[in-house]
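To close the chapter, one final illustration. This time we ask the reader to focus less on the individual chains and more on the assembly as a whole: which components sit near each other, and how the overall shape emerges from the parts.
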Amino acid sequence: MKKISRLALGLAGLVGLAAITGVQAEEAKTPVAGGTLNMIAQPEPPILMVGLNTQGPTLYVGGQIYQSLLTYGTGLEVLPSLAKAWDVSEDGLTYTFTLQDNVKWHDGQPFTAEDVVFTADKFLREAHPRWRYIANTYVESIASPAPGKVVFQLKKPFSAFLYAFELSSFPVVPKHIYEGTDYRTNPANQTPIGTGPFKLEEWKRGSYIHLVKNEDYWKPGQPYLDELYFRIIPDAASRAVAFEKGAVDVLRGGDVEGFAVRRLAKLDGVETTTAGWEMYSPVVFLQMNTRKAPLDEKRVRQAVMHALDREFIVKNVFFGLGKPATSPVASTTRFHSQDVAAYPFDMAKAKALLDEAGVKPAEHTVRLMPIPYGSQWDRLAEYVKQQVEQLGFKVSIQGVDPGGWSQALSEWDFDMTFNFTYQYGDPALGVARHYLSANIIKGTPFGNNQGYSNPKVDELLLAGASAVSAEDAAKAYAEAQKILTEEVALGWLYEMHNVTISREKVRNLVTTGIGLNEAMDEVWLAQ
Amino acid sequence: MTFFRRYAQHYGALVGLAILGMVLLLALLAPLIYPVSPWQGVGEPLLGPFEDPAFPLGTDMLGRDIAAGLAYGARVSLLIGVVSTAVAVVIGVSIGALAGFYGGRIDDLLMRFTEFFQTIPAFAMAIVLVAIFNPTITSITLAIAIVSWPPVARLVRGEFMSLRSREFVQAAVVVGQSGPRIMLTQILPNTLSPIIVTASLMVATAILTESSLSFLGLGDRNMMSWGFMIGAARTMLREAWWMSVFPGVAILVTVLAINLIGEGLNDAMNPHLRGRKG
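The assembled structure is written out below.
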């Protein structure tokens, strides 16, 4: 009898315990409203108007103020944002978007389909190079046939079109503020008006940007947070200390240097993730100017690729925060192909390729211009120099500042340099620009600056872009990747992993493929 | 007492000379001891000191030998130190001598010119010069020379002014010697002591300036230098102390040695201190 009762008591106790932990688990999952989230804007953005500036920090802060029609999941699935539904016609020529109801601008004006038409047809066409290219190349007309509906009529199919409505490509701007004004000098750029979950309260230059909750936000009950602070801390070591001391709760990829990431990730109560960059998937590459001997010779570029140990680069230069790249299309985005020419680390093969090409490396001095973004990039240049010198070339490193780098690259005045660019989810948006011969234009560091030109590749890339079905696009892009890797149009080094570091109490921080640029309407702080 | 015996009375000066001798030897022998370029990764990355007997001072994040870096860095430091000081002394002595000997308008003009350089903080100006002319070993040497000549000019001007009115100079004038000849053969030899002492200390300052420039990433990117080694390693101080500590010690020891030598020279050459026990 005693035994049974004890057992019963014990059981009851267990059940009770389970009930209590169940309640706690439930509490930990239910969002609580309130609280302040501290982050870092690095470097301080020049402006918060996302339609005029798409630099990292502008998007990070501006993404809380402005919103786009669509957003994208970590698997790059298309998700609703200001558009709640969308429809693509069979022939791939008509895109119809249905907008969310009851959305208001921060100044109280209603958000309508007219704002979207103005944004697409007027504002971004003038102010946004990437959208201008898409609009002028593919879009026939943009109209609003009924309230809450916007229709894009295309001239020819564009397989990447649904991926062109991300925050950095298509932030919707208020027509009533910008229509008929000079967009760049409009004083409203200093007091941004968007539809996002947070409004600009105060911007103390050099110190912080303070955003507060938008009480009229269109998602009921959201956002949960009351305030956001983006602190401005110019020194990398101080940013790491600020996180350690608890002055900031979130570090974005690049806020602190790689070695500090490893240290901070080990702290108690700290979480890390590399998710939230799928849309951008930056790929780092060695850019070899194909106009200059000996780099104009395909086999020399292949030899350079064989001489670089990309595992070593990721592990020792970038602290393991990446993955060796094998193709121009990042493995996290659409249409990545495995069937490509591979360049395993093999010095003997590299030297054999040079012999085969009849190139005498000792006769050439190659200028190598590091990208001036910090010490890791300097180490990368030193590593490439030592490897290329082992092939017999003389390599001279040319130190430059960011302006000098951008200028030399834009003017094609380089032998070798590094660069990394965002891929924007689809090869037609972020990849093709580096290889299309039509993009051999001076004036931008992010085009086909190496002067690579192959009519067959042009054809394949354009075929992929204008394919109606995903299968056709995949086929064309796979073929293009095969040729590009075989000819070493660029020396792909690695896919950057950006680590987001946050305190455990910050919940729902990274939910989509644009990560921290996503409107933080679902982020909440556990007590 | 001979000059060397006076110098040797100062023990510190002897120690300084010995250290500098060793650094010089290391710099000269660097290509023999380390035939592979100091930029070349030769071992596992981030080996600590004595972890592998082949790399007694360890390796850096790319597997480069720290000891090889120190040896090649000594070449750069000493070369820049000596050459930039020589250039600065030539400029400083010329301007100072002309100003001090002729006085008047020439003196005014040259001294205002000198003050122009003196009013700008030397290091800031060196940074600007290097940034304008792209960092190469020549531009860095010249930049350091350009920011360090004014004190020499001031010193030499003072010496020339005081010596100009001495009897032996007046005698030379009476004999009919030309101005330049008097400057070169009569006055200059008598100002050599303070110039040598100042120059020896300038070498130390030049080494420090070069290290600071390299530390800031404004060094010659194709030359291994101590300042560069610290600048590259500084971010990993907590993980790999040896990468910054050894080049730091090298700078400290070399600069200290040169300062000790300078002090020894001062004591040995200053007639007022003759007979003082070091």
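Chain A touches chain B through 24 residues (CB under 8 Å). The two ends of chain A are 45 Å apart (CA to CA). With these observations in hand, you are ready for the problems at the end of the chapter.
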